[in-house]
Amino acid sequence: xxxxxxxEKSYIFALRIIKAYKFLTENKKEFVLAKxxxxxxxxxxxxxQEAEHAQSRPDFLSKMNIALKEANETKYWLRLLKDSEYIxxxxxxxxxxxxxxxxxxxxxxVKTTKNSLNSNxx
Length: 122
Hints:
By secondary structure, the chain is mostly helical. The chain is 86% helix and 0% strand. The protein contains four helices and no strands. It is elongated and about 55 Å long. The protein starts with a helix and ends with a helix.
């Protein structure tokens, strides 16, 4: 159940990131930070989708762990865009809430998977 939720939420989040990218490049004429945000913000969902057909539990864990890292990187770029006034505090609060939710979901999946792998190894 957790996988399906994170896949859907990461897809919706990626759509928001794409819209933010379009806003930043078309309205603010900001390209470098926007590209970084687009890359990592959409990678989260792609990695979750890849993990669905992982070759093994360790492969699944690896993909979800990388998705977690991408979510953390996205959080950084969003904060930088807010603090440099490319996005408004209201826009930031709206999207960072979704980003933090994804981080919590991914961290939980990674932790549960690690625990499962460790208990099976004993």
